[in-house]
C-alpha cells in the first residue's frame, strides 16, 4: 500500500463512518511517520482503522470497504474496521499518533500509530509477519530499541510486558549480537528462535546501552514522548 492509497483509505473510511477522524493501526500506519517507507514495510493491502468519535461504526467500514468488497476489487486494497480494544498498546499512544490530513483525505484526519508504538503492538501479536515487520524497522534503523523497550512497562498486561521484553531481546540479538538485552540472571536470548520456546528469560529483562547510531541517510523515527 502506498501513501496515496493510505490517504484514500482514510478518506473513504471517514466518509462511510460519518466521522472526521480515524485511528490507523496495523503495518500501514508506518506511512504516517515515514511516507516513503521501504517496500518491505508496505506489503499489506489492508489498512486497519477505527473511527475515533463513532467507534461503533467500524462494522460499517468493514462492510463497505473490507476484503472482497467492491472497493477492494476496484482499488486493489481494502480497509478493515476494528475496535481499539483489540490492539495491545502502551499508555499514551493516542498522544503520539501521527496525523495525516491533506487534500487527498478530503480534510479528514488519519491518526496513524507512531512507529515505536506500532513496533510494540507487533511484538505483542508476534505472528510471523509481525516479527518480520519489526525486524525490518530495526534493521533499517527506523526504530530504536531503547525507545521500544522503554514503552514496554506501560503495557497494561504483565504477561505482555514479559513477552514483549523477551521478543525484543531476541530481535536485538539477531540484528546486533554484541548488544544483547540481558536478563537479571545475566543470560541472553541466543536467537530469535528463543521466543518460540516454552522456556523464556525472566520477566524482569531490561535493555542495556543506548540507541544505536543511525546510518547516514537513514529515516529514523521521532522518539516517542513520555
List the main descriptive attributes of the protein structure presented here.
disordered C terminus; five-stranded mixed β-sheet; 5 strands; 226 residues
Summarize it.
The chain is of the alpha/beta class and 226 residues long. It has helices at residues 3-17, 30-33, 58-65, 70-75, 93-96, 115-125, 128-139, 145-152, 158-175; strands spanning 21-25, 46-51, 78-81, 98-100, 109-112.
Task: Give an overview in words.
Helix 6 packs across helix 8 and helix 8 (145-152) packs antiparallel against helix 9. Helix content is 38%, strand content 10%. It contains nine helices and five strands. A hairpin with an 8-residue loop joins strand 4 (98-100) and strand 5. It has helices spanning 3-17, 30-33, 58-65, 70-75, 93-96, 115-125, 128-139, 145-152, 158-175, and strands spanning 21-25, 46-51, 78-81, 98-100, 109-112. With 226 residues, it is of the alpha/beta class. Strands 3-2-1-5-4 form a five-stranded mixed sheet.
Count the E strands: 5
What is the residue-averaged pLDDT? 77
What's the helical proportion of residues? 25-40%
Q: How many individual helices?
A: 9
Quaternary organization: single chain
Radius of gyration from the alpha-carbon trace, in angstroms? 18 Å
- By secondary-structure content and strand pairing, the structural class works out as alpha/beta
Q: Low-confidence spans: pLDDT under 50, at least 5 residues? A: 175-220, 222-226
What is the percentage of strand-forming residues? 5-15%
Distance between the termini: 30 Å
Largest sheet: 5 strands, mixed
Shape annotation: globular
Which strand order do you get reading across the main beta sheet? 3-2-1-5-4
Order of helices and strands: HEHEHHEHEEHHHH
Amino acid at each position: 500500500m502506498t501513501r496515496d492509497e493510505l490517504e484514500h483509505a482514510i478518506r473513504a473510511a471517514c466518509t462511510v463512518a460519518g466521522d472526521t477522524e480515524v485511528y490507523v493501526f496495523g503495518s500501514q500506519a508506518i506511512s504516517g511517520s515515514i511516507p516513503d517507507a521501504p517496500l518491505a514495510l508496505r506489503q499489506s493491502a489492508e489498512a486497519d482503522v477505527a473511527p475515533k468519535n463513532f467507534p461503533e461504526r467500524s462494522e460499517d467500514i468493514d462492510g463497505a470497504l473490507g476484503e472482497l468488497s467492491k472497493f477492494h476489487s476496484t482499488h486493489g486494497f481494502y480497509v478493515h474496521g476494528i475496535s481499539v480494544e483489540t490492539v495491545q498498546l502502551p499508555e499514551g499512544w493516542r498522544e503520539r499518533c501521527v496525523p495525516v490530513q491533506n487534500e487527498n483525505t478530503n480534510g479528514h484526519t488519519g491518526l496513524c500509530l507512531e512507529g515505536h508504538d506500532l513496533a510494540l503492538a507487533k511484538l505483542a501479536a508476534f505472528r510471523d509477519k509481525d516479527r518480520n515487520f519489526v525486524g525490518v524497522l530495526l534493521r533499517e534503523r527506523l526504530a530504536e530499541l531503547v525507545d521500544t523497550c522503554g514503552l514496554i512497562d506501560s503495557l497494561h498486561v504483565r504477561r505482555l510486558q514479559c513477552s514483549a521484553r523477551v521478543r525484543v531481546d531476541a530481535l536485538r540479538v539477531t540484528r546486533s549480537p554484541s548488544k544483547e538485552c540481558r536478563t537479571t540472571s545475566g543470560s541472553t536470548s541466543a536467537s530469535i528462535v528463543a521466543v518460540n520456546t516454552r522456556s523464556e528469560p525472566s520477566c524482569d529483562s531490561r535493555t542495556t546501552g543506548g540507541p544505536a547510531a543511525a546510518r547516514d541517510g537513514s529515516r529514523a523515527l521521532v522518539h516517542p514522548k513520555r
